[in-house]
Amino acid sequence: MRLLRAAYRPSRLFSQRLLCASIAALTSPASFISRELWDDAKRRAVSEKWVETLPVEHFLHRGGLLQANGEDALQATVGSQPPPILDVRAPCEFAKGHLPGAINVPIFSDEERAEIGTLYKQQGHDVAVNRGLKLVERKGWDELLAPCPHVAAGDELLVYCFRGGMRSGSMARLLSQAPLRVHTMEGGYKAFRQWAITRWEHRRPLCVVGGPTGSGKTEVLLAMREALDAQVLDLEGEANHRGSIFGALGREPQPTNEMYENVLALQWAAFDTRRPVFVEDESHAVGRCGVPPGLWSRMRAEETAVLRLAIPHEARVEKLVGEYGVYPPAALADCVRGLAKRLGPEKAAELVALLEQEPPELAHVADELLTSYYDAMYAYQAKKRKDDQHGAPQHTVECDSGVAIDNARRLLTRYADLYNEGGC
């Protein structure tokens, strides 16, 4: 199976679903509901269990987050866009992590969820359910369904809550009165999280791509993916961070750690198990996003291939100036001050002064950062990785420039040579 490209960018997947809904839809689901249907849905939500459920992977396939091979894939292409996915948990739950592209249609607010949870613990199931029904009745179906995308009668919607219980079942029951075709996810988001955490147990050939700061590793990996059809797990791109003290410059806010894990797990599940997956050599965290423990263990395993780019020093300096020289010198100076403990206060002050000149001495600063700090740190980390991998070989890819596509071809050629010789 493979992950649809839109799922690599949750925001784009979200916008595509909204666009699809606005084109094909007639109206909000609320317009189909009457008082009689509303009362019937509430009654049956309490007395009857919703049975139109899908296992986690089937739910993901149906929602366009994973696509099956063979006959299932053919059936999946018969329709147009995948159906919208509705997350009916409270906003605080959704903010922590959710399925990429899901739309939050909360049955309860954060405060209401907390109130019902307290009642459940202190007074039991029936009291909590009755209170929940009163809160829902107070809102009415118009308010409850307001965040839903516009749909046509007979369209399909996918719905999940935390455990796949009353919240998703109740919403499915109401939407089915519209009438819409509705499926919920067995076990809910909790089951999906377990699925995501265990994806790393499913093996794929893995190659870690290293290289000193300024080697352009991320650009090489992206060139491999976009131009050469390699399987690449972009740890920095999904984290919105470059992995160093300068890493947040110009980037959107980082996702939550849980959301980061969700997206990476979906990508890993989509990769062809017969082909290698390339990933950048990172520490255990990329900014505030922790590399999933299962992936981290695989990256440090003795059998994992390691290829290190060797780029001329001058090309690395040029790369850093081109990448970071677009940001205000004051922002760069703040980052350098953050390295004062490692550089020493005198060296840090010297580099800050160079950045405060007009024009700023960007190339000088980049050169000093490499020679005074980053290269030594890289050598230490490379040795530590070798120790962690019990002396397993780490291969060098010699590059005569910093051109990403050229170095991407060299890296893939080197990997193929080593693999064919049994070196990987």
How does this model look, in words?
This protein folds into two domains: 5-196, Oxidized Rhodanese, domain 1 (3-Layer(aba) Sandwich); 204-420, Rossmann fold. Helices cover 52% and strands 10% of the residues. The chain is built from 19 helices and twelve strands. The strands form three sheets. The chain has a five-stranded parallel beta sheet with strand order 1-5-4-2-3. A five-stranded parallel beta sheet has the order 7-8-6-11-12, with helices on both faces. α10 (217-228) crosses α19 (404-420), α15 packs antiparallel against α17 and α17 crosses α18 (362-388). The radius of gyration is 26 Å and the shape is elongated.
Topology:
Blueprint: H1 10-24, H2 35-47, E1 53-54, H3 56-62, H4 70-76, E2 85-87, H5 91-96, E3 103-104, H6 110-123, H7 125-144, E4 156-160, H8 166-176, E5 181-185, H9 188-197, E6 206-210, H10 217-228, E7 231-233, H11 235-239, H12 257-270, E8 277-280, E9 285-286, E10 289-290, H13 293-299, E11 305-310, H14 313-324, H15 329-337, H16 340-343, H17 345-356, H18 362-388, E12 395-398, H19 404-420
Parallel strand pairs: 1-5, 2-3, 2-4, 4-5, 6-8, 6-11, 7-8, 11-12
Antiparallel strand pairs: 9-10
Helix pairs in contact: 2-8, 6-7, 10-19, 14-18, 15-17, 17-18
In whole angstroms, the N-to-C terminal distance is 25 Å
Biggest β-sheet description: 5 strands, parallel
User: Can you list the strand order of the major beta sheet?
Assistant: 1-5-4-2-3
Q: Give the overall silhouette.
A: elongated
Helix content: 40-55%
Number of strands: 12
Number of domains: 2
Provide the CATH topology of the largest domain. Rossmann fold
Give start-end ranges of low-pLDDT stretches. 1-25, 69-78
**What is the arithmetic mean of pLDDT?**
89
CATH architecture of the largest domain: 3-Layer(aba) Sandwich
Percent of sequence in beta strands: 5-15%
